[in-house]
Design goal:
α8 packs parallel to α11. This protein has helices spanning 99-103, 111-120, 142-145, 147-158, 175-183, 198-204, 211-223, 244-254, 270-281, 286-296, 315-331, 348-354; strands at 47-51, 58-59, 69-71, 74-75, 104-108, 129-131, 162-166, 187-192, 228-231, 258-260. The protein has one domain (44-335): TIM Barrel (Alpha-Beta Barrel), CATH 3.20.20. The strands form two sheets. The chain has a seven-stranded mixed β-sheet. A three-stranded mixed β-sheet has the order 1-5-4. By secondary structure, it is of the alpha/beta class. The longest helix is centred in the C-terminal third of the chain and has 17 residues, at 315-331. 33% of the residues lie in helices and 11% in strands.
Length: 357
């Protein structure tokens, strides 16, 4: 099978059917020249649909994730990370986890309004909350729509602690909000650094900030007093995993305080997309990479069981975990979660009244 054409700025150019789709498509060369947008080397444009969502807080009951609540201001992500475990979520929109995930975005324009209402309900109690768990809340479209900023304003007014995970340098714009909250132990930021190699990073995450820019981001957040951690996730055998120690050392030097790492996960439609990407970019390593992934996932592309999905199983998974722990110790990085002050929370209505006195 010939390699799929590469398109600058996109993780994939294919539009595979999602798992709920009744129809299956087949490519057919009809002899006509390709449209300009589909031509090799031309990046398809990004479309953003505004949505008035029904709810904004997602609850997590998974024992191997370190938060109970999450907020995702967008559906889909223009960063185009080929390995993104959130790609299959586009299936619920009747869209492809492939190119559609990167180019057909949904913006929850009423996110701040919904959040304010949710925090005001009498039964609400503050819990660990993560902003951007299934989509990067600082992807390029945030510069214009500013939905993430409006959500932070609501959380800040209510003094509700939260964490952010991002690989987008746009978070620097909101330092005026984050720094005062950090001084009250209300926020922590995790910056995802998957590689220090610009070429590998550009292929894995075509529209995300470059590695040097992410280290600079860690430094600037730290200098502003915002607690910063580094996520070396996902680790991919024979691609970015050999860099693990160097990434942790560079992040600590930049100002990171803590770190975590998750081996590559390939749920649902992500597995064939990633295999195709490997054949396109690293065909000489593709079999070795997937063989090692299968070794750590019980002989499969993915293992979704609680307790193993975030760590993997077997000898190689344990070896990876030991390397990570020792590298953190050498670099002086902790592996604990940030310590937040939940006692400051005030429901939005009460917070507004308190500001009058």
């Amino acid at each position: 099978m010939p390699p799929t054409p590469r398109v600058k700025g996109r993780g994939t150019v294919t539009v595979p059917p999602h798992r709920f789709e009744a129809w299956r498509r087949m490519e057919l060369d009809d002899g006509w020249p390709a449209d300009a947008e589909g031509a090799e080397g031309t990046a398809p444009s990004t479309q953003v649909r505004e949505e008035h969502a029904r709810s904004i807080l997602s609850r997590n009951d998974s024992p191997d994730i370190g938060f109970e609540l999450s907020i995702n201001p967008y559906r889909g992500c223009e960063h185009g990370c080929i390995y993104c475990y959130a790609r299959p979520l586009h299936s619920y929109l009747d869209l492809s986890p492939g190119l559609d995930f990167e180019t057909r975005l949904v913006a929850k324009v009423n996110a701040a309004e919904l959040l304010r209402a949710a925090l005001s309900t009498p039964r609400f109690r503050p819990q660990r909350l993560c902003l951007g768990a299934a989509t990067d809340c600082y992807q390029p479209v945030e510069r214009r729509l500013r939905i993430t900023r409006s959500v932070i304003e609501v959380l800040g007014a209510a003094r509700h602690p939260f964490s952010i995970i991002t690989k987008g340098a746009g978070i620097e714009r909101d330092l005026d909000l984050l720094a005062p909250l950090a001084a009250q132990r209300l926020v922590g930021v995790y910056v995802s650094v998957t590689s220090l190699n610009p070429e590998l990073s550009r292929r894995l995450e075509p529209r995300a900030a470059a590695p040097a820019r992410r280290l600079q981001l860690i430094e600037r957040l730290s200098r502003a007093g915002v607690p910063v951690g580094v996520s070396v996730s996902p680790t991919i055998p024979f691609l970015n995993e050999p860099e693990m120690e160097k990434i942790l050392s560079a992040a600590r030097e930049a100002g990171a305080q803590t770190a975590f790492s998750i081996p590559l996960r390939l749920p649902w439609e992500v597995a064939p997309l990633f295999r195709e990407w490997l054949q396109n970019h690293y065909p000489e390593r593709a079999e070795r990479v997937m063989a090692r992934v299968n070794d750590m996932r019980g002989g499969k592309d993915n293992d979704a069981r609680f307790g193993s999905r975030m760590r993997g199983v077997g000898v190689w998974a344990e070896f990876r975990a030991q390397r990570f722990r020792k590298a953190c110790q050498r670099s002086g990085l902790g592996q604990e979660r940030f310590d937040y002050d939940f006692s400051r929370f005030r429901a939005p209505g009460l917070a507004a009244q308190g500001e009058l006195f």
